[in-house]
Design brief:
Layout lengths: L7 H10 L21 E2 L12 H15 L3 H4 L7 H13 L6 E3 L3 H12 L8 E5 L4 H13 L4 H4 E4 L10 H11 L3 E7 L11 H10 L3 E5 L18 E4 L14 E4 L1 H4 L41 H17 L1 H20 L4 E3 L12 E5 L3 H10 L2 E2 L1 E3 L3 E4 L8 H18 L1
Parallel strand pairs: 1-11, 3-4, 3-5, 5-6, 6-7
Antiparallel strand pairs: 2-8, 7-8, 9-10, 10-13, 12-13
Length: 423
């Protein structure tokens, strides 16, 4: 265990010894009221802009200007297959094979498209398992899917509840719920990392237990991709979806992605909404009347992808590849561990995020005594950018690509001061 110290000199020493510290200079950092870099701990909502993002996007704008439609074939990065440039890099971050991953659409759109294939209810098995405090969009999506199939969400949705007085779900309780209701559950759809508490669930154990019960198992990885270690292929997960504007830094509303286990790619019994970009590449432009799916996750594509969004995403993924995800995870655990240690020194602050590094990513969800909203407002006024989630949580996320140990120290200092002023 690291010997932490509550001093700025210690934090600066850690930054000097950090082999990834130079990546911070490759992002645009928001400035505080004094014109100095703010403490930006909101990467779990929107990642910062890589300085190369403009360059990557401008290349495509220039090729569009010079080539017009010919850019699909003759651009420096031909648009026809541009999405393939980010498939392998995205697959690395979720532990999938490149042909099991495709980058497309937006997150909830992708969840609906995947549930067309992987939520196939019957009268005896029509339930969906989800966290009680899942992100609202996921809850809206599964409820609407149940209604679409003629079922009452009140009867068809099973919500995983934490024990009284606890914020996080216990793995044994999740698995017991699957064992108890497995013969009724058609689909499990759980967030990889819970957006509210920051808890990283045991996806491998959930998948194994779900399959033992005959359930299809999928995950929303919006808060997990680029944040925690994931091995979807090795864990035999059926499907997953994610956005890319949080830890992947693709920009507001950036393009999303999906994983479809290769076991399902050529399963002709699966229903699926089809579109021409999911058609066999060799005959796509022959314009046949009959759909012939690509034999990979690309079959779930409907339309040609937005190149400018892909370019922005590629700027960030190139940095992930250069930094090495293993090294980023190592730094993340050190940063978050230091943050947790400092927070524990402040009276009246409680983290509801699991204390074990194996059960969380870089986010800590904090509850403070008194008026938490007032404390949050004071933090914002002091140049700290984090976020508030109703009813009572301040979420902070020291992201290893661009946050520093000194950021962590500054946050703790401002949090203590804000609490004293709010009394």
């Amino acid at each position: 265990m690291m010997e932490y110290q509550n001093t700025r000199d210690y934090a600066r020493m850690c930054d000097q010894e950090d082999p990834l510290s130079s990546f911070r200079n490759r992002f645009h950092l928001p400035l505080d009221a004094n014109g100095q870099p703010a403490v930006y701990f909101a990467g779990n909502s929107l990642g910062l802009q890589p300085k190369t993002a403009a360059e990557y996007v401008l290349i495509e704008l220039e090729d569009w200007r010079k080539l017009g439609v010919e850019g699909h074939v003759h651009a420096r990065h031909p648009w026809m297959r541009y999405h393939e440039l980010v498939a392998g890099q995205s697959a690395e971050l979720v532990g999938g094979l490149p042909h099991e991953v495709v980058v497309m659409n937006s997150l909830t759109v992708n969840l609906h498209l995947l549930m067309v294939s992987f939520y196939r209810p019957t009268n005896s098995r029509h339930k969906i398992l989800i966290e009680a405090d899942a992100f609202p969009s996921d809850k809206y999506a599964v409820a609407s899917q149940a209604r679409f199939h003629g079922y009452d969400p009140a009867e068809s949705i099973i919500e995983l509840q934490a024990r009284p007085g606890e914020a996080s779900l216990r793995t044994e309780d999740i698995l017991e719920t699957i064992r108890s209701h497995g013969n009724e559950i058609a689909t499990i759809l759980v967030g990889g990392v819970n957006y509210y508490t920051g808890q990283y669930f045991d996806l491998q154990a959930i998948t194994a237990e779900g399959h033992n019960a005959g359930c299809v198992v999928g995950f929303d990885l919006a808060h997990a991709i680029g944040n925690v270690e994931i091995q979807l292929h090795d864990w035999d997960v059926d499907f997953a979806a994610w956005c890319s504007y949080k830890y992947l830094n693709s920009g507001p509303g950036g393009i999303a992605g999906v994983f479809v286990n290769e076991r399902h790619s050529n399963d002709s019994s699966l229903p699926r909404f089809n579109g021409w970009w999911g058609h066999d590449k060799e005959t796509r432009f022959a314009m046949p009347d009959t759909f012939k799916p690509v034999g990979t996750a690309e079959a779930w594509q409907l339309s040609n992808p937005p190149i400018l969004q892909l370019a922005s995403l590629r700027a960030s993924l190139d940095m992930f590849e250069e930094a090495g995800f293993g090294r980023l995870i190592d730094k993340s655990r050190k940063l978050t561990g230091y943050l947790e240690w400092l927070v524990k020194q402040i009276e009246g602050v409680e983290s509801i995020t699991p204390g074990s590094p194996a059960d969380r990513g870089c986010q800590l969800s904090l509850r403070v005594d008194g008026d938490g909203r007032d404390v949050f407002s004071r933090l914002t006024g002091s140049g700290v950018i984090c976020d508030w989630r109703e009813p009572d949580v301040i979420r902070v996320a020291p992201v290893p690509l661009y946050n520093s140990f000194e950021d962590v120290y500054r946050f703790a200092t401002e949090l203590k001061r804000s609490m004293m002023e709010a009394v």
